[in-house]
Amino acid sequence: MKNHALLIPRGLFGLGAMFMQIMTMATEPVLAQANAPSSHASQFVDHSLLVAPEYPCTWPTYPFPRFQLNHQRTIGPESAYNIDSIFIDGNTGTQLDVPPHSVTRPDLNRPKSGPLGLAYTDKIEAWQFGGEACVIDVRELLDQAPKGVSPLVTPEHVKRFEATHRPLRFGDVVLFRSDYSDKYYRPFPEGSRFIADVVDRKAPGYPDPNPDCMEFLATRGVMTLGTDSASMGPMPNLAEPTHYAGLRHGMIWTEGATNLGALPETGAFYCMMGPRHQGGPYSEGRAFSVVGGDLPKRLIESAKNKRAIDLSPTLAPNLPVTSPGSAAGQHRQVYLKIDFLYAESLDLWHHGHLMDAMAGTHLVPPSFALPSETGRADYAPEVRGWLAEYEQKYGPRGVSSLTTEKIPLDWTCGPARVIDVRSLVGTTDPKNWPASPVISPAQILSYEQKSGPLKSGDVVVFQTGHIDRHLKPLPDDAGVWADPLTGKSEGWPAPDADTIVLLKQRGIRCVATDAPDLGGVNPKTALMTYWALGSREMVGIEFLYQVGKIPVVGPGSSGGYFLFAPLKIRDCHGGPGRAIVLY
Q1: What superfamily does domain 46-58+93-306 belong to in CATH?
Q2: Both ends of the chain: CA-CA distance in Å?
Q3: Angstrom distance (rounded) from CA 178 to CA 207
Q4: Average pLDDT over residues 557-571
Q5: What superfamily does domain 348-582 belong to in CATH?
Q6: CA–CA separation, 572 vs 399, rounded Å?
Q7: What is the band of 557 on the pLDDT scale with cuts at 50, 70, 90?
Q8: Domain map (residue ranges) of the chain
Q9: What is the average pLDDT across 465-471?
């Protein structure tokens, strides 16, 4: 399907005439088919393991919990949406380690204590997540050790890389490529070879750096690493020494990366991000890279020069990061921290999280509001009426099997185009609450007149200011969700279906907001917005903050580059993740 973008010569029509033409076009049926992606030299490469129960995605020893995905509600009489919850431990799939994994808190006054013992996943600065990928090939070590023992990556392997390419430096992301996960991350029973057989001394260990290698990398100023092994800790007895040797210098790293063979030895941009859990010594995450074209160089320079903005609020049990609903029984799974193993050496609990799949910053895939090709949508009578009205105006609602793990990474990344709609706040009549101010096509057209046309591949970010103003811990948490949903205060600004149709005509694939969601507080309007997104194979990113810090697009400024990556969970109808901007 071609992208029939609206082409109106500037200066030919006034804003009112432009608005009327947009509204006319918005009523035309639009097929549930995406715009053909434009060809770019830069490509995104996924380095994340699929998280699913039949894969060895969790650490197999007692008492580490197994991953669970629960389809709490499916589209039908009780729900117009597919709503999931997840129970996940930070040692799941592709994961992020930060210093408190081995460095103890300074107040403990222990030999391994220091300030970095407080550098949890919610405290790591966004620039450190990415940099230039430097792929060190250690494939000759694969399986070259006794059972239960890891072959060791030493400083000599690093020096060999430097002799062939260049000295390592600050801003590099050192990636150890053994192809271990590519070979052994398989569904069970074959999947036992990934971790369990190594632990049980039935198979050789995964290649990993020794402590001397970490110390050597520290002399080069390297702050971010990755391995395609199951852990950065050599088996059986060097895991903690290696972890401490690197983490004590403030390093962070990826464990369980995959597909590193798709990268050149140098020159690609690599990034690893995970949900911003409060007090997390590690986190489940998503790793990816950008290769080819000019984009990697731009992103590498931004990260190296610490030009990064974290757009994801912290996830914490005392913060309103999921919807309480507007009435009894309508709430989503609250965010819970679940302790399961006490680490005496660190004086902290290993913990997992039970949470809604849309807790905090998250992805909205098309399958959230659309039934699958094989599913039925036996809506409640009221919703059936809304659907008839929607389809008469916008065309078929459509179906979708696009769950989170199927969404291409380049759909959720692109030049950030921040549309400030804070002027809408306070424009509704309290007598009509609950109600949200509508972000209409007029706001899009006004933005384009000032900042230039939106382009295919841009990520549109609505700045409402809602999360920045209202995100507060208990007991002052009602301003985010509860008061607007129950009509005690105005709802947050949200786009209607007409606006989504216009954005699709502009070639926009991803729409984001610093509000709790893109639907607003009116159930009918919200559902039509999500139907419009899903039927046009568009995705949403919700629950951002600090978007006012993103550079404004205009003369002399290219703005920032938006990066978001959700957890790669199979069959999930949402996706927690992390959003940052590099500028």
Answers
A1: Putative cyclase (3.50.30.50)
A2: 33
A3: 7
A4: 92
A5: Putative cyclase (3.50.30.50)
A6: 16
A7: low
A8: 46-58+93-306, 348-582
A9: 98
